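Board notes, transcribed. Complex of a protein with magnesium ion.
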Amino acid sequence: MNIAQVKLKVICMPLKYPFHTHLGTVTEREGIIIEVMDADGISGYGEGVAFSTPWYTEETVATSLHIMSDVLIPLLKNSPIKHPEDAAILFQLIRRNHMAKAGLEMAIWDLYSKRNLTSLSKMIGGTRSEIASGVVVAADSLTSSLRQIEKYLEEGYQRFKIKINPGQDYTVLKEIRRYYPELPIMADANSSYTLNDIDRLKALDDFNLMMIEQPLASDDIIEHSLLQKKIKTPICLDESIVSFHDAKNAIELGSCKIINIKAGRVGGLYEAKKIHDFCLDKGIEVWCGGMIEFGISRAHNIALASLPGFTIPGDISASNRFWEEDIIIPEVAVKNGFVSVPDTPGIGFGINEKKLKEATRTEKIFTF
Ligand SMILES: [Mg+2]
């Protein structure tokens, strides 16, 4: 592929509204923008989606920057690749650090698709021209949750994800159901329960939820299989599935009926597609989760969610869900509840250079 240069930019932007979970509140988002340029000056873009602190996974912006700069980029420099999958396989020499690997690998996918004048969606086997859009409601009170739902419903979102925890579950969902009996809602617990809470979780069967996401420990597969036997609501796994191997085990054990695939969490598009293909074969539904991301990662998510197995609306919301102004042109827009999948080469979005420059805190350049 003749890679000539890699640029890493650490950027930071304030969120339009604070994002609340029981693990913490996000008010501004740091991220890493990766630009991989070839000898002809064509650039592909990726995004490192780790957060500033390790509340979601163990990776952070600082650890991702270190792994990319000191480990992955030198590996790439010493081992020329012909295809993005070669990068994914090369990075398997390094344990974990999936978000760092994914950011680079996805920039390479964008570059490769651009070089082949093909959309990233087509390049990875996407079949949809538009994808259904869902949104996360992450407010700090019931009143503001209801207000957010009303607003997002007007904007056409097709699925609503409510963050829950043992201190805020049954009563919140009951109240939401009182106002919206038919609303497609799911709950995300971000690992805030244990098996001692089985009765509490069973009670949520009352609300006809599309699913409950990651109720038990963030690295558990076994206990979820015990829980799924006791509750009617389908379990969806997020944090627990960091590889194809995990997905295979979880499905074989009956730990979940649905998987949330985030390319960042599993190390990139190669692994994400492997998980997707396996789930499609086994009849397990998947959807694409969000990471409060900037436009580049959002664009990659659109391509991923265009694969045939992504049958449930994901967290792919419009750029204006989080940002006053996004770093891509055009911004991602939701029309009548759908986001259209670009058919232009690569991720199909340009870079808003002015906004990207404003948001950039530090920049590192690696020449090959
Ligand atoms: Mg989740």
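The pocket of magnesium ion is lined by residues 188, 190, 213-214, 238, 289 (CB under 6 Å). The first strand starts at residue 3 and ends at 21.
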